[in-house]
Each structure stands twice: as structure tokens, then as C-alpha cells.
Specification:
The complex is a heterodimer of chains A (about 290) and B (about 475).
Chain A (H helix, E strand, L loop, with lengths): L26 E5 L5 E6 L3 H20 L2 H17 L1 H12 L3 H19 L5 H5 L1 E2 L6 E9 L2 E5 L7 H11 L4 E5 L6 H12 L7 E4 L3 H9 L6 E3 L7 H8 L5 E3 L16 H5 L1 E9 L3
Parallel strand pairs in A: 5-6, 5-8, 6-7, 8-9
Antiparallel strand pairs in A: 1-2, 3-4, 4-10
Helix pairs in contact in A: 1-8, 2-4, 3-4, 4-6, 8-9
Chain B lengths: L22 E2 L1 E3 L2 E3 L6 E5 L6 E6 L3 H19 L4 H17 L1 H12 L3 H22 L13 E2 L2 E5 L5 H15 L2 E5 L6 H12 L7 E3 L4 H8 L6 E5 L2 H10 L6 E5 L5 E4 L5 H13 L11 E5 L3 H12 L20 H16 L3 E3 L15 E4 L6 H4 L6 E7 L2 H9 L6 E5 L3 H10 L4 E4 L18 E2 L6 H4 L2 E2 L1
Parallel strand pairs in B: 1-5, 7-8, 7-10, 8-9, 10-11, 12-13, 12-17, 13-16, 15-16, 17-18
Antiparallel strand pairs in B: 2-3, 4-5, 6-20, 11-19, 14-15
Classes of the chains: A alpha/beta (about 290), B alpha/beta (about 475).
Chain lengths: ~290, ~475
């Protein structure tokens, strides 16, 4: 009975709600911290990245037009499903990050709670980041936050799940859509997260996930003219050249911050939420 | 066309989903217990006068027991719990409310008399939304604009009315728990059943005992709760008369008080408003929930130039309203909540006629049993008439006219109340000018009776103080 051979999973990309292999046909070997083979992950290409941006752009009108209440509920649902897959994520984080099972459990706890924390912001951020503006004239003047659009995210290399969730959730909760490049060395928890997203109520294309070489794909995302913002957290060494490339269409750039990105267990501030928000101010005359 | 009214077949929602017990205890410290002196009262269906269940009447000793349970839960559990864990309980409650939504809707319609279409599509979805919204605030209080680490108040005593039994419960309990308080809540004596089902939901959610306590009873129970020396916060929704009594009895204490009281809202229709849309808004404004709405648009102010057109259209629309069985999915107007309330509506309507206003109601067959009042409007109403000044809290609309925006503002503000107002016009600048002039806590423009957990609600003047909903709603339950 103990001779049963486990059925292994094929780890693929997640683009537009589907799980394609890389169009390049390439894969790379993922191992645990001791070098033991875990899986062959897709080695994403420039074309995959561009497909992912197209999918994210396509999803943006619907997702950003959803009510904040609806987005909050959809994202909370993701946390419910994460809770149900605890054991799988613990195993993957143990293998990928070399943590003890106990530490990995704490990471999963924090991951789920982080997701819930961000989900709750959906219908609250406007109450603290919007304003009615007392202009000196007969005008009603108010400012509201709006999502910036398509956000490219280079996920942190070290924290393969908690770090990943901490960089995706703040972008999607306010209505932007995301192309995320997973941790290069430990991409498997990210791929499993995409399976959770695919089976929750998150619309196809809201989150698109690539695996592969950060150094290879990041420049294509940074120079892509249909990406509105980029988070460089996962590429501190390349940050300067990526930020320069991002200037071509004046992407909003979230720079890596060694101090901030060293410990993902700390409850974040609003920086990542605000990074992907535009402020729209509306003037309207007042008079009989 | 024969001019005959289109007939509907009955489409009743099944009662089978509700499992009523013959009697209910008080919910104290996480379990149902009998009251100390064993007193009880009956709650009936206002549509049929059938007895639905027997409910315990909490005396002073029971209220004291509930407050003690809430204090203990506050000191030992709730105030020590990390905020995000507190939030998770609220999320759980929100989800169970969604799961049991239909059951709650049917029970609400049974006990209150409101149409199932309303309890199913408005009340209960909002209840869940309220918990969902405030769940998210629990671990974000630092960001709410009240300074770093705002503290909860302690034990909140909450007294709610019968017009939106479960919705008012959610407006009270969700922000209070999110802010870190524990609760003793008294539902209205004519509508206690959904609050008691909510107690079961707290059990299903695994909420620690004593965090929410529910004591049923009438005015005396409410007084015992409000005046209890170990209550830190009093929140009341109900009549202005009782609100003033509470303000007097809590004077000189350290209790923080918020009051959401009566209203006599003006619904103001300008001559450039789209008439059909405005008429729908007028009907929704006063006939929604049988007019048992503190923010109801009970005074219609119509610009003289469109008076005839609006009135003709309004009367035509009133003729299509369906009054009857609250559980019928086609019903627009359900039962008046109690014999007492029906008597008050009848009395004020009689006064309206006696004072010289002209009464009109569409021909309308009312059921033999239960408490019913046909949708009614009064024309020729002057500002001095009692039906223009006093809250009727029923399906009765007083129609007045105006010529200029300034006159509309004067008439609209000529009331001791200040809860809400409606403005109907195609001109944006006029909406904003009117909004600036109106002394009311909520102004609806080209809509009416909209509610959302993200939006603060509450009154000016004798409509009370404090706000419920939104970031502002947290302030009522925080030491700021």
C-alpha cells in the first residue's frame, strides 16, 4: 500500500484566468533549499509578459467599476479559500523558504490575515484619502481616489507567499489589475495562490502571474507602454535601470526599500495602497 | 383598454424556512436564560394578529445581570483581544447573516409586517453589509482620524425601534463591536424575534459569551438599561420624546450618548425635475416601509407651476400600490406594526381633516384582520397644521407648495426636526445650493431613502445627535 506513487502537479502560468504554459516552451528547475528537485516551473518570456498585460488591461474596466463593497467581498472570499488550503501552503513554504513547519504556519496565518486586512480597505480608503475641499468660492469641490490601471509587480524574492500577498492585495483592492512576477527561486506558492484566485470570485485577468527570471522579464514590464505603475520590490539590484525605463510613460514607481522589505510580518501602513491611486478632483458650481 | 387593474395571482413566500420556538429567554452571557421574575409577553404578527411566540420581559435584575456579563466580557476578553481577531468575529457574523438571509427576511416580515420584497432586498442585505463594513474597521482604527490607538468606551447599552428591527440592530452592534465595546441591546417589544435569532447567530459565530447580550422588554426594560450606572455608552433610536427623556436621565453622568430620533423630512420637487422619476421618489420616500421611517419624506413641497401635473401623476401611482399580505412578493405596502401605531396614524389623519386639509386615498381593499392603513395624501396643508409639523410615522403624505427656492428652504427648515431632506431638480448647482441651505443630516438629491454602511446618517436639531455609518459612525463608540 505504501508504494503508491503521488500524482505530481504541473506548475504553469496564470494569465487571463487560464493556466497556459510559457509560449516559449521553456521551463526551469525549482528545488528546495537543499537542492532537491521540486518541480519544473514555466520560464516566462517577453511574450508571456505582454500577454499578461493585455489580460490585465482587459479586466481593468470591469474590476475598477465594481463597487468597493463587491471588491471587498470578493477578496475576503480569497482569504476564506486560503484558510482551507493551509496545509498545502505550509508544505510549499517549508520547501521553498526552508522554514520550520511551525514558522511556516505563522507565515500562513499572517498571509491570510494580511489578505483580510487589505480586503477591508476597499470601501474605506476613500473615506480617509478622499476629501471635500473648502475652496474660496461658490463651488462644491471634492476629491476621490481612483485606481491607476495596470500594475506590474516584481514580488519579493525571499518571502514567497506572505510577501507576494502583501504586494498583490494593495493593488487589486482599490481596483487596479496586476501582472505579478513571482519569486524566482521559490515560485511554487505563488502558482498555488493563482489556483486559489482562479476558484474564488476574482474575475479573470485581475491578477496575472508569471514565473521565470526576474532579470529577463522585469525590463519588458518596466518599458511596457500600457503598464501604469510598477513595484520594484523584487529587483533591488536592477531598480535604477528599471526606474529609468519606467520613465518612458511616467509609470508610478514603488521603489524597493531594504528596511521595509526585510520583515513582511509587520502590519503595513498605507504606502502600497496609495501608490496605485490617482486623485480625481471635481468642481461643481453652487447656486439657485 | 377596459381601465381595469391588472390582477396578480398571490405569490406568497413560504413560512416554512422559519422555525419559531413557543417561547424565548433572554440572551445573557452567551446563553438563553429565564428572566428573574418569570415575566413574559407575546409578540404577534401585525398582518394577522396571530401570536408568534412568547418573549421574556427583562426586569431590573435581568438588565443588571446582562450589564455585568458585558462588563466581564469587556474586561477579560474583548478589550484584550487583538483587533484583527475581533474583526474576524464580525466577518463571521456577516457571512452567517448572508447564509441565513432568507430565514431572517421571512421572520422580519412576520414580526414587523413589512413586505417580504423589502426585508429580502433591502433590510437583510444591508444588515450583512453593515457587519461586513465595520468588520474591516476593527483593525484600522488608527487610520480612522481619531488620533493613534483610540480606545473603546466599555459597555454599550443600546435601545432600538420596531421599524427596521434587524437593520437597526446592525447599525448599533457592528460599529460598537468593531470599536471594541461589549453590548447589552434591547429590541422593541413588538419586534423582538430577529434580534433573538441574531443571538443564535452570535452562538454559531462562536462569539465569546457576554460580548453581545440581548434583553427583551418594553419601556421599563429600556429605562433600566439606559440608567444602569455601569453602562458607559447609550445609543438610542426611536422617538424624540423618549430621546429627550434619555438626554435628561444621562445628564451629569460620564455616559456618551447618541440619539437617532424623529423627522419630518421635506421632499422638494422643482419644476425642472423629471416628473415620473420624482413621483417614484415621492412614493418611495413616504410609502416605503409603510411610512415607518424616521427619515421618511412626509412633507412634499411642490413648486406651484408643476403642482397639478405632479399631483395627478402621484395619485395615479398611488392607485397601483398593492396593500396586503407582507409575505406576498407582489406587496408594496404591508401591515402597520401595531394597534397602538395604527391608532396614532388614524388620530393624526382625523386631525388633518378637522384642521381643514383635504384627504385623499385610492380605493383600496384592506384585509379584515390585522392593522392596515391605506396610502393617504393630504392637500391644502398649511405649515401650521399638525400633519405638517408632527411625525405621523405612517403612510400619510402632506402636500404643500412653494414658488421660489428661498421659500422652499424656509418651509423645509420650518420644523424642530432635521434628519433628512430630498431635492428633485435637473440643475446640479441648485442641488448643491439647496444642500447647503437645508438644516438636515442627510440630503438626497434625485433619489430618496438610500442607505449604505459607508455613508454617515443622523440628524440635526431635535432629530438627535451622533452619526451612524461610515468612518463617522465609529466616533460614537470610541473615546476620542
Amino acid at each position: 500500500m505504501s508504494d503508491r506513487i503521488p500524482v505530481r502537479k504541473t506548475y504553469k502560468l496564470y494569465i487571463g484566468g487560464k493556466f497556459p504554459r510559457s509560449e516559449s516552451g521553456r521551463t526551469y528547475e525549482v528545488t528546495d533549499r537543499k537542492g532537491t528537485f521540486l518541480a519544473n516551473a514555466a520560464l516566462g518570456s517577453r511574450k508571456d509578459a505582454r500577454d499578461a498585460v493585455v489580460a490585465a488591461r482587459k479586466a481593468f474596466p470591469g474590476w475598477s467599476a465594481a463597487t468597493a463593497y463587491n471588491r471587498g467581498q470578493v477578496l475576503y472570499r480569497v482569504a476564506e479559500l486560503l484558510e482551507g488550503r493551509r496545509a498545502q501552503f505550509v508544505d510549499e513554504v517549508v520547501a521553498g523558504e526552508g522554514l520550520s513547519a511551525r514558522k511556516a504556519e505563522a507565515v500562513i496565518d499572517e498571509t491570510i490575515d494580511r489578505w483580510v486586512w487589505y480586503a477591508g480597505w476597499s470601501d474605506k480608503i476613500a473615506a480617509i484619502h478622499g476629501s471635500s475641499n473648502p475652496v474660496a468660492g461658490p463651488y462644491f469641490d471634492f476629491s476621490v481616489p481612483e485606481p491607476t490601471g495596470v500594475v506590474a509587480v516584481l514580488a519579493p524574492q525571499g518571502s514567497s507567499l506572505l510577501g507576494l500577498v502583501s504586494v498583490i492585495a494593495p493593488a487589486v483592492v482599490t481596483g487596479s489589475t496586476v501582472v505579478v512576477l513571482a519569486s524566482e527561486q521559490a515560485p511554487l506558492p505563488a502558482i498555488s495562490l493563482s489556483e486559489v484566485l482562479a476558484t474564488s470570485d476574482v474575475p479573470a485577468g485581475v491578477v496575472n502571474l508569471l514565473t521565470g527570471r526576474t532579470a529577463e522579464i522585469a525590463p519588458w514590464l518596466a518599458s511596457h507602454m500600457d503598464v501604469n505603475a510598477i513595484d520594484l520590490t523584487g529587483a533591488p539590484e536592477q531598480a535604477l535601470e528599471l526606474e529609468v525605463a519606467s520613465a518612458d510613460n511616467l509609470k508610478r514607481v514603488l521603489r524597493p526599500d531594504a528596511a521595509r522589505d526585510a520583515d513582511w510580518t509587520i502590519t503595513p501602513g498605507l504606502e502600497r495602497l496609495l501608490a496605485y491611486l490617482e486623485t480625481k478632483t471635481v468642481w461643481h458650481p453652487i447656486g439657485v | 383598454m377596459t381601465g381595469k387593474k391588472f390582477e396578480y395571482a398571490p405569490a406568497p413566500e413560504s413560512r416554512a424556512i422559519v422555525d419559531l420556538k413557543p417561547s424565548y429567554g433572554l440572551f445573557i452571557n452567551g446563553e438563553f436564560v429565564d428572566p428573574a421574575d418569570g415575566r413574559a409577553f407575546k409578540t404577534i404578527s401585525p398582518a394577522t394578529e396571530e401570536v408568534l411566540a412568547e418573549v421574556s420581559e427583562a426586569g431590573k435584575a435581568d438588565v443588571d445581570r446582562a450589564v455585568q456579563a458585558a462588563r466581564k466580557a469587556y474586561d477579560r476578553v474583548w478589550s484584550k483581544m487583538p483587533a484583527r481577531e475581533r474583526g474576524k468575529y464580525l466577518y463571521r457574523i456577516a457571512r452567517i447573516l448572508q447564509e441565513r438571509a432568507r430565514e431572517l427576511a421571512v421572520l422580519e416580515s412576520l414580526d414587523n409586517g413589512k413586505p417580504i420584497r423589502e426585508s429580502r432586498d433591502v433590510d437583510i442585505p444591508l444588515v450583512a453589509a453593515w457587519f461586513f463594513y465595520y468588520a474591516g474597521w476593527a483593525d484600522k482604527l488608527d487610520h480612522a482620524g481619531f488620533g493613534p490607538s483610540p480606545r473603546p468606551l466599555g459597555v454599550a447599552g443600546q435601545v432600538i425601534p420596531w421599524n427596521f428591527p434587524l437593520l437597526m440592530l446592525s447599525w448599533k452592534i457592528a460599529p460598537a463591536l468593531a470599536a471594541g465595546n461589549t453590548i447589552v441591546l434591547k429590541p422593541a417589544e413588538t419586534t423582538p424575534l430577529t434580534a433573538l435569532l441574531f443571538a443564535e447567530i452570535c452562538q454559531q459565530a462562536g462569539l465569546p459569551p457576554g460580548v453581545v447580550n440581548i434583553v427583551t422588554g418594553a419601556g421599563e426594560t429600556g429605562r433600566a438599561l439606559v440608567e444602569h450606572p455601569d453602562v458607559d455608552k447609550v445609543a438610542f433610536t426611536g422617538s424624540t420624546e423618549v430621546g429627550k427623556m434619555i438626554a435628561r436621565s444621562t445628564a451629569g453622568s460620564d455616559k456618551k450618548v447618541t440619539l437617532e430620533l424623529g423627522g419630518k423630512a421635506a421632499n422638494i420637487v422643482f419644476d425642472d425635475a423629471p416628473v415620473d422619476q420624482a413621483v417614484e421618489g415621492i412614493v418611495n420616500g413616504i410609502f416605503f416601509n409603510q411610512g415607518h421611517v424616521c427619515c421618511a419624506g412626509s412633507r412634499l413641497l411642490v413648486q406651484e407651476s408643476v403642482y397639478d401635473e405632479v399631483l395627478a401623476s402621484l395619485k395615479r401611482r398611488l392607485g397601483t400600490l398593492r396593500v396586503g399580505d407582507p409575505l406576498d412578493k407582489n406587496t408594496d405596502i404591508g401591515a402597520i406594526n401595531s394597534a397602538e401605531q395604527l391608532a396614532r396614524i388614524r388620530e393624526l389623519s382625523a386631525v388633518g381633516e378637522a384642521e381643514g386639509a383635504e384627504r385623499w386615498a385610492p380605493p383600496c381593499d384592506l384585509p379584515d384582520k390585522g392593522f392596515w392603513f391605506a396610502p393617504t395624501l393630504f392637500t391644502g396643508v398649511s405649515q401650521a397644521h399638525r400633519i405638517a409639523r408632527e411625525e405621523i410615522f405612517g403612510p400619510v403624505l402632506s402636500v404643500l407648495t412653494f414658488r421660489t427656492p428661498q421659500e422652499a428652504v424656509e418651509k423645509a427648515n420650518n420644523t424642530p426636526y432635521g434628519l433628512s431632506a430630498g431635492v428633485w431638480t435637473d440643475k446640479g448647482s441648485r442641488i448643491l445650493w439647496m444642500a447647503g441651505q437645508l438644516r438636515a443630516g442627510v440630503v438626497w438629491a434625485n433619489t430618496f431613502n438610500r442607505f449604505d454602511p459607508a455613508s454617515p446618517f443622523g440628524g440635526y436639531k431635535e432629530s438627535g445627535y451622533g452619526r451612524e455609518g461610515g468612518r463617522h459612525g465609529l466616533e460614537a463608540y470610541l473615546d476620542v
